[in-house]
Design brief:
534 residues, alpha+beta, BirA Bifunctional Protein, domain 2, Rossmann fold, 3 domains, five-stranded mixed beta sheet, globular, binds glycyl-adenosine-5'-phosphate
C-alpha cells in the first residue's frame, strides 16, 4: 500500500487538509479541511445521513432486519448540562493514563508506549518506542546500542529478553528508558487524565459555571429521548441519528486526522424491545460493515472484529468494531472506524435514576459515602409506553458510532493510487463517485471553434444539480491528470465532432475508457452513475 507521506502531501497540495493555525506553527490534534476536503467530508456525512436516515423506507423490512423500523434525526448543543456527563459516566471514568518524562517534558499515553527488555554489560533495561512492528524493533535496537555505547556491528552483544510489549506490563519504571530520554528512570508513574475539555458558562468562572465540550454526540440523543417520543409519531423499534463535533483532549493526537482533539461523529442510538435487541445488534453490525464496502473500502482492508467477553462494558451483551488497515499502522494492525455496541438500558436508566454501576452482578445506582446516589439522575420518567401491550419499560439500545474524520481518512487512503500509463506514473484518487468532491469536469478540447461556448452551456446545465468544474487551461492531457489527482470520476470533453453530431466524450477516471455520448443525455448518465446503491 502507498506510503502515508504521499497522501499527506497530496492533501496539502490539492486543498484537502491543512494543519490548523498553520501560519502560527499549527496546533497539535486540530485540522482544517480545505476546499476539496470540506466537500469530501460533507459527502461522507451526507451519504451516511441519506443511507441511514432520510433514504430509509420504514414501510418495508430491510434485508437482515427483524421487522420494519423508523429513523429520525437530531442536532443537539455541544455544551450540555454538567449533570449529563456525571450520569453518563464520563465525569468519573472517561480518562486515559499518562506518563510524563521529567527530562524531555514530553507526555505519553501509558498504553501507547511499547518497548523491549534488553540486557548488555551486566544491566537489564526496558527500551521504549512509540511505534510497533518492524519499525519498533529497529528503533529499540538502535536506541539500545546508543545507550550501551555499542556500534552496529556489536549488536550481538545485546541480549533481548522480550518482544515488543506495552509499558503497562512494567511495574517499576526505574530501569525504563523513555521514548525521548537518554537515561533510565525519567518517566513518572502513570496518572489519570480526564479527556473532557472544560469550559465556563456565562460570567461565572468558578466550579459553579464549569461545563464540558461534549466528548460524544450520543448523550444529546439520550437526554432528548422523551422529547422525540412526545413530539413525533415514532414507535419502537426506531433510531435517532446525529452528526456533529465532539472534543477529546487526547494525550497523544497522531496519525494525521485519525486521533484528533476535535472531530466529528455520526452516531445512531437505536431503541428496541429488550427481547429483540440481540437481533437488532446483529442487523446493525452487518449493515454498517456493508455500508463501508458499498462506498469503496476493500474487504481485504476492512474487518469486523467482535470484542471478547472480557473487553465488553459491564452492561453490554455485544460490541463489534469495524476496523481498517490504515497505511500508517504496522502490517497486520487495524484502526477503529466505528464501534457497534449493545448498551442495554444503561444510558436511559442512568439519566432517570442516577449514575449506574454494577453491584453483585446487577446494575444499580452507585451510592456515595453518605448512602445517597453519587450522581443524581434527572428523576424524569424516560420509559417507553407500548400502547398495544399497555406496558411501560426502558428500551434497550444498539449504538452504531462512527467517526466522520476517520471514515474520510480511510476513503482517502483507499483511493490513493499511482498507476503507470504508457510509461508515465499518474497519481489518481479513485474515490467512489458519491464521495468525490467534483463529480465531473467539463473540458473544451481547444479554446476556439465554438467549443468553449458549448462546454460552458453544458457546465451551466450540470452545475444546477452537481458539483462540476470547468477547466480550459492547458493541454488536455494535463487537465485529465489534474482531475485524476483530485479524484474527479468523469471528464466530459467537447471536441470538433460535437458540432457535427451533438456528442461529447465521457472519460472514466479508473478505466480511462472514453465513450461518445449524446450531449443532451450527459446529465441523466451522471445521475445514474451517482445513484446510491446501499
Ligand atoms: N458514543 C460512543 C463513542 O463515542 P467511541 O469508540 O469513543 O464511542 C466512536 O467513538 C468513533 O468516534 C470512533 O470509532 C472513531 O471513529 C471516532 N473517534 C473517537 N475518538 C476520536 C478521535 N480522537 N479522533 C478522531 N475520531 C475519533
Amino acid at each position: 500500500m502507498m506510503e502515508m507521506d504521499k497522501l499527506v502531501a497530496l492533501c496539502k497540495r490539492r486543498g484537502y487538509l491543512f494543519q490548523s493555525s498553520e501560519i502560527y506553527g499549527g496546533l497539535n490534534g486540530f485540522w482544517d479541511y480545505g476546499p476539496l476536503g470540506v466537500e469530501l467530508k460533507r459527502n461522507v456525512k451526507e451519504a451516511w445521513w441519506r443511507d441511514m436516515v432520510t433514504g430509509h423506507n420504514e414501510l418495508i423490512t430491510s434485508p437482515g432486519a427483524p421487522t420494519t423500523h423508523q429513523m429520525v434525526g437530531l442536532d443537539c448543543s455541544i455544551i450540555m448540562h454538567p449533570q449529563v456527563w456525571k450520569c453518563s459516566g464520563h465525569y468519573d471514568l472517561f480518562h486515559d493514563f499518562m506518563v510524563d518524562c521529567r527530562v524531555s517534558k514530553k507526555r505519553y499515553r501509558h498504553d501507547q508506549v511499547r518497548g523491549r527488555w534488553v540486557e548488555a554489560k551486566g544491566r537489564k533495561i526496558f527500551v521504549s518506542s512509540q511505534t510497533g512492528g518492524e519499525e519498533g524493533l529497529k528503533e529499540t535496537e538502535s536506541r539500545a546500542l546508543k545507550f550501551f555505547n555499542l556500534r552496529a556491528k556489536q549488536a550481538d552483544e545485546l541480549s533481548w529478553c522480550s518482544d515488543l510489549v506495552s509499558l503497562t506490563t512494567v511495574a517499576d519504571f526505574t530501569e525504563v528508558l523513555g521514548p525521548d530520554a537518554n537515561e533510565t528512570g525519567t518517566l513518572t508513574a502513570p496518572r489519570e487524565f480526564n479527556l473532557m475539555f472544560k469550559t465556563f458558562v456565562g460570567a461565572l468562572s468558578g466550579e459553579e459555571g464549569a461545563a464540558f465540550l461534549r466528548p460524544e454526540t450520543a448523550q444529546g440523543i439520550f437526554v432528548n429521548f422523551k422529547n422525540v417520543c412526545d413530539s413525533t409519531r415514532v414507535k419502537l423499534p426506531f433510531g435517532i441519528a446525529q452528526v456533529g463535533k465532539s472534543f477529546r483532549n487526547e494525550i497523544t493526537p497522531r496519525n494525521f486526522t485519525f486521533r484528533s482533539r476535535e472531530f466529528e461523529q455520526m452516531e445512531i442510538e437505536f431503541f428496541c424491545k429488550p427481547s429483540e435487541s440481540p437481533d437488532w445488534y446483529k442487523y446493525w453490525r452487518d449493515r454498517r460493515y456493508a455500508w463501508y464496502l458499498s462506498l469503496g473500502l476493500s474487504s481485504s482492508r476492512l474487518q469486523l472484529r467482535d470484542h471478547h467477553a472480557d473487553e465488553l462494558s459491564h452492561y453490554s451483551c455485544g460490541t463489534a468494531d469495524i476496523e481498517y488497515a490504515f497505511p500508517f499502522l504496522p502490517p497486520g494492525e487495524f484502526g477503529e472506524l466505528e464501534g457497534i455496541a449493545h448498551r442495554g438500558d444503561f444510558d436511559l436508566r442512568s439519566h432517570m435514576e442516577g449514575k449506574l454501576a454494577r453491584k453483585d452482578g446487577e446494575l444499580a445506582v452507585e451510592l456515595g459515602e453518605d448512602g445517597k446516589p453519587r450522581h443524581k439522575g434527572s428523576g424524569k420518567d424516560l420509559r417507553y409506553f407500548d400502547d398495544q401491550a399497555r406496558e411501560r419499560f426502558v428500551p434497550h439500545v444498539i449504538e452504531p458510532s462512527a467517526g466522520a474524520d476517520r471514515g474520510t481518512l480511510a476513503f482517502l487512503c483507499e483511493a490513493y493510487h499511482e498507476d503507470v500509463v504508457e510509461g508515465d506514473t499518474r497519481v489518481v484518487l479513485k474515490l467512489h463517485p458519491r464521495l468525490a468532491p467534483v463529480k465531473a469536469a467539463i473540458l473544451p478540447l481547444v479554446n476556439k471553434d465554438g467549443m468553449p461556448e458549448v462546454a460552458q452551456k453544458l457546465y451551466a446545465e450540470l452545475k444546477g444539480e452537481l458539483a462540476v468544474q470547468y477547466d480550459d487551461g492547458g493541454a488536455i492531457g494535463r487537465r485529465y491528470r489534474r482531475q485524476d489527482e483530485i479524484g474527479t470520476p468523469f471528464c466530459i470533453t467537447v471536441d470538433g465532432q460535437t458540432k457535427e453530431d451533438s456528442t461529447v466524450t465521457l472519460r472514466d477516471r479508473d478505466s480511462l475508457e472514453q465513450v461518445r455520448v449524446p450531449l443532451a443525455g450527459v446529465l441523466d448518465i451522471l445521475r445514474g452513475k451517482l445513484k446510491p446503491s446501499c
